[in-house]
Amino acid sequence: MSDTAAAGAPRPPGGPDTVAGPVGTATRTPLPASTGHTLTSVYLFVVYGLLALGMGLVPALVTTFREEYGLSGGRLANVQNLKDIGLITAMFAGPVLLRRIGVARMTTLAVLVGLAGCAVLITAQEYAGVLAGAFLHGATFSLGALATVSYLYRLPKRYHRISALYATFGVASFVAPSMVGVLVPADGDYRTVYMIFAAALAVLFAAGKLLDRYTDTATARDAGPAGQPRLTRAMLRGWLPHIAVYATLMAGETVVVSWVTSLGQYRYGLTLSDASFLLALLWVAYTPARAAGDLLLRHLTVTTVVLLGALLIIVGDVLICAGSVPLAHVGVVVFACGAAPLVPVYQGWMLSRTPTDRHGPLNASLGVGSAVLTTVLVWLTGLSVDVDTRLPFAASVVCSVGLAVWALRSRTRGTTVS
Question: Could you tell me which residues are beta bridge partners of residue 28?
């Protein structure tokens, strides 16, 4: 997955490359383009899912951070917010990096930033270290997500499986609370979790280097720097209504994911392991529901998918807060089935209707808008969670009602992406 095509004399089709080494020369036979595209697609899925693990570990460890560092709800919300600020910061830098270094090197950079985040959290001795680690893991996911989605849409159309790509986030988010439940001991030392995560990132880095070495030059050109226009006011004006919808989808989903563990522990009196299972169950249901998004668009309009999803989210939120642990388990499944397809369906629909050379600015605009609203909402619900752990779920209901109203109005007049 090299960023630049090989220079020098052309090689015969299917012939080996000659690579100068410290002793004489060595030969290698690059993979055919079709094989390279397939392996690159698989690698992008693994990258996205593994970097998502860093995002999933932060909400899974909120109660552990709270107990180890004695954090209030507001300070705990700041941990979530620094993760989102890292997201936003990297989103501003992402389109520039795509222009200058290409998606392959940007993917490698994201993995390295993730390793740095692990190192910070492993060595952290105080609250500031947790904030810095959360920031870095937000940044690494932002860089990796922008690179993988942009690269996926440079491959042939049959690889444009954005809902399946996003489903790997569900797998990672299931693995995250499961790791916490199994690996975090009674004294709350979370560092073993990040040691294992760092080892996985190191393996991913090595795998990327191997793919870089053996992928042929046709695939390499896909990975290299490409023309990406700067974001203009005209683009932003045309995209603004869609950014608002996308941000609301993301914020309504994130507040539930961020606080469902706290609800389980502090309202229902569950242990950390049982509360983590509540979050894990949510992500188990998320994964197939998210992967089904590509199929839904073959039979339903985007507004219909959003409307049905919003209604299921409302029902799920009510069940989660109904006062019964069994109903809460049912509620997280219903919530997941409603929320999971919405973000990738809406983003994929927009990407499919937007010229490829505008995908960088579009993805960055969607990401910044959603991260800003999500940061504000998580911070506000963090202040409210000390009053009543159900208030974040009320905020999710409000977001979903707004989305349902938008969908009902849009169904009669249609919606397009400029």
Answer: 17
CA dist 322 → 235, 238, 251, 318, 390 (Å): 44, 41, 22, 6, 10
Return the ∠ at Cα 126 (arms to 192 and 111), rounded to 5°.
50
Cα(99)–Cα(119) distance, rounded to whole angstroms? 29
Token pair 């989903």: residue: 253
How far is residue 225's CA from residue 197's CA, in Å, rounded to a whole number?
A: 29
Nearest to 379 by CA among 391, 369, 367: 391
Residue among 4, 21, 19, 47 at smallest CA distance from 208:
47
Contact assessment for residue 87 and residue 367, using Cβ atoms and an 8 Å cutoff: yes
Tokens linked to 363: 């993805």
CA of 228: how far to CAs of 107, 110, 208, 406, in Å?
A: 17, 19, 24, 31
Residue type present at position 163:
S
Residue with tokens 């936003």: 88
pLDDT of residue 228: 58
CA distance 364 to 366: 5
Query: Terminal CA-to-CA distance of the chain, rounded, Å?
Result: 32
CA 389 to chain centre: 25
- Note the pLDDT tens digit of each residue in 294-329: 778 778 888 899 999 999 999 999 999 998 899 999
What is the Cβ-side half-sphere exposure of residue 147, based on CA atoms within 13 angstroms? 36
Largest CA distance in the chain: 72
Q: How many Cβ atoms sit within 10 Å of the Cβ of residue 206?
A: 11
| pTM for the predicted model, two decimal places | 0.67
Where residue 218 falls among pLDDT bands split at 50, 70, 90? very low
List Cβ neighbours of 28 (8 Å cut-off, separation of 6 or more).
16, 17, 19, 213, 214
